[in-house]
Amino acid sequence: MNYVEAYNLEIGLLINFGAKSLQRKRVHNNSLIKKSNNQKNQGSKQ
Fold it and tell me: 5, 15, 19, 39: most buried, per Cβ within 10 A?
């Protein structure tokens, strides 16, 4: 999701009002999560 990465958010919400019933999905910023995990791993190695 572009807005999740653009605003540096960890979690976003995708909503579809066009279906017969409301559809929603949680989306994650994988690049931010990977960066956070790398920083945690580097901190534990020192």
Answer: 5
